[in-house]
């Protein structure tokens, strides 16, 4: 009997076919209205959910899925998954930290280069035959100051790309300094912004980082500074950023995430000094495959998950005492999905 899997994020059709071939009956609900309808229709039979940090799964939805046994957040984030509700029922919550770090770091540098060098405007000018318009001076990247707001694994990879590839000087701000880090530590987001030519946001989402980048930080970044966000839209006060860009209080911004996405504020959409991509650096299955194990997958056989060997895949703050049983014929999604896509 196939395992009913609710997929609440966008995936490539090829990936969906591979998941189905692994023994899942897929129910796709990438927008809120679809999710409500599917939960009402087949929610009593759903045993697994595939989501991500920015989409999550809330307590009301979990309560409407009485047979739910595992929630897999594709990628590192899981901030919108209600861990308390899941843990109270012993529902496993997994994520894939590190599986897409390189992809995200690559895209951060792509955004940095695109906004600094005016690539979008230059492409438009060249296509329209206005070559002279595309030749105005643009800032250098090599040798500039790169500030990393959130020096986790992704932030570290961005720092290495900037320093090793472009000879940039790197500084960072975290809640506390990282032992052994070769980069300069600065005591606040404002201090980091004031120091930086380019500031890249690589922090987790959640209440502790909401609007961490506000008017004060943006003014510290200054008229020659660039902001790049590949983390969570909630980290930046969008209204403050739009105001800073409209009034040229910072030089430019490049965002892979924005508050309220996919709905973009009309004022933001008009800005020439803003580049937007649609969560383009979120996890892609093939970029994740090399970091995942297939040990818990036997084609055609039963799935087995216990809180032993694979407990490393639980999210770090999963409620203690939540795992009281083992799970037969339940895909250990973090391993199975990523290893097969």
TrEMBL record:
Domain D-isomer specific 2-hydroxyacid dehydrogenase NAD-binding, residue spans: 109-278
InterPro entries: D-isomer_2-hydroxyacid_DH, D-isomer_DH_NAD-bd, NAD(P)-bd_dom_sf
UniProt-recorded Gene Ontology molecular function terms: glyoxylate reductase (NADPH) activity; hydroxypyruvate reductase [NAD(P)H] activity; NAD binding
Keyword hit for NADP: yes
An example Gene Ontology CC term for this record: cytosol
Database matches in CDD domains: HPPR
UniProt keyword list: NAD, NADP, Oxidoreductase
Top-rank taxon, per record: Bacteria
Protein name: Lactate dehydrogenase-like 2-hydroxyacid dehydrogenase
Organism in which the protein naturally occurs: Rhizobium lusitanum
Higher taxonomy: Bacteria, Pseudomonadati, Pseudomonadota, Alphaproteobacteria, Hyphomicrobiales
